[in-house]
Amino acid sequence: MTTTATDALTQALVRMAEAGDRPRCGEPGAHELWLSEDTEDRAQAARWCAGCSVLAECAAAAGELKASFGVWAGRDYGERASRRTVAEQ
Ligand code: SF4
């Protein structure tokens, strides 16, 4: 059976949870920055990805899923398309 990058990220997150830890994007009160409409919020989220123990798995999953919005592994993929104005699309 082939393990996908997304499966590998899920497994890494489960291991973190079993150890009583979680990535910063999963912290209550902070996680909304990763999907914010505000560019500065997403820039802050991207900085907070630095040092994440699952950063490599997150980056691989973002590539596999062809991430098109939000912050993944310190990279800002932009705002969710449904939130953009018609003029921006
Ligand atoms: S690297 Fe991925 S899992 Fe870690 S904080 Fe950033 S977005 Fe979250």
What is this structure's SSE topology?
Blueprint: H1 5-18, H2 39-49, H3 55-64, E1 71-72, E2 75-76
Antiparallel strand pairs: 1-2
Number of helices: 3
Question: How many discrete domains?
Answer: 1
Instruction: Please identify the structural class as seen in this structure.
Output: mainly alpha
Runs with pLDDT <50, length 5+? none
What is the count of β-strands? 2
Domain 4Fe-4S Wbl-type: 24-82
InterPro entries: 4FE4S_WBL (IPR034768)
Protein name: Transcription factor WhiB
Organism: Yimella lutea
Account of the 3D structure:
This protein is mainly alpha-helical. The chain has one domain (5-88). Helices cover 39% and strands 4% of the residues. It contains three helices and two strands, in the order H-H-H-E-E. A two-stranded antiparallel ribbon has the order 1-2. Strand 1 and strand 2 (75-76) form a beta hairpin. The radius of gyration is 14 Å and the shape is globular. The chain starts with a helix and ends in a 13-residue tail after the last strand. The model has no long low-confidence stretch (mean pLDDT 92). The structure holds iron/sulfur cluster. InterPro entries: 4FE4S_WBL.
Short description:
The protein is mainly alpha-helical and 89 residues long. Helix content is 39%, strand content 4%.
Give me some keywords for this one.
single chain; 89 residues; mainly alpha; 4% strand; globular
